[in-house]
Amino acid sequence: MKKKALSAAVIAVLLSAVAGVTGIAAQSKAQPTKNVSMETGALQVHFINVGQGDAALIDDGNFEILIDGGTRESGKRVAEYIKPYINGKLDVIVATHEHEDHIGGLPAVFQAYEVGQVIDNGRKTETKTYQNYMAAVKKEKCKHTKQANINEIKTPSGATLEVLHLRGTYDDPNDHSVITLLDYKDVETLFTGDLTEEAELQNLDKFRDIDVLKAGHHGSRSSSSADFLDVITPQYVVISAGVKNSYGHPHAESMTSFAEFGAEVLGTFRSGDIVMTTDGTNISFNTQTRLTMQDVGAPVGQDTKKAAAKPATQTAPVQNKKPLPANQKNQTIAYVGNSNSKVLHKSTCSSVKKISAKNKVSLPSKEKALAQGYKACSICKP
Asked: What is the reported pTM?
């Protein structure tokens, strides 16, 4: 049962050039009158627009999991956003790690809802943000579980949220992020917190092929290494970052890597709240906007301005899990393929040198490559 009544409408914070402090592109959303997951049996993942931070809600009908709560300033918005989807209590909160842009908003969520269980990495810090978070956890008196003591959470639909246990000792708090993988029938979504390349490379065997990646560390160059992407080969990548953020997220290096692996990239700074819906076979999003290299650094763009004025509610058509490659013009040029990611490159493409030797294959023609299931690199456009 909710412990505190929330206001009936979300206060829309419109994006403007002076809104670069929080970097929230589109603060409002069409408030649903129905819970899609409950009525259709589909599972939804809401990548909530919290500016330069992370917050994602997994909605499985009568069971909800919140992964992170954004910054302290965005906490109230997160609590408001998830209101239509919470049935009784909020079942699980996963606090990936102790940084303010991930747990700063969670006290507001604890204040608004009864919480069944909290999962975190068990690390302690002296920051005010962490102290406020722990005070809220203790006041709630809910089950508090360290990531080392849990392997998975089962949802009523049969989906599983796996907690991945990584090896290694790291100085960077980001590498102690709680890593979770949502497995629903044939669709898998990976949440990596702010995990960096160092931890990725030491734990490649812990990961597997997935469909959707919540980009690590807001699309920073320090995450989503080529070797890591070579293992997980995501079809979609969602980046949570603030408009004109001071870090320059997403970085050009990450955007280039995502493109080289043929992933479609979405961003909260461009589309606002991003909602993924899946029946366990097909995947659809509530936005058709995809990021390009022009979106490096999350500049103000036309889609951002439109989203601020009127959030998009049109749901993109349900797509097959693996899209067909786009038609390409015939060219007489040598081709190189990545046998793992199934991406086709011109031999002169800069990304070819990044392909590991075991996955690099020569292909006689574009037509034969496409017939074998390869998809064209969006950088060199073979």
From this structure: 0.74
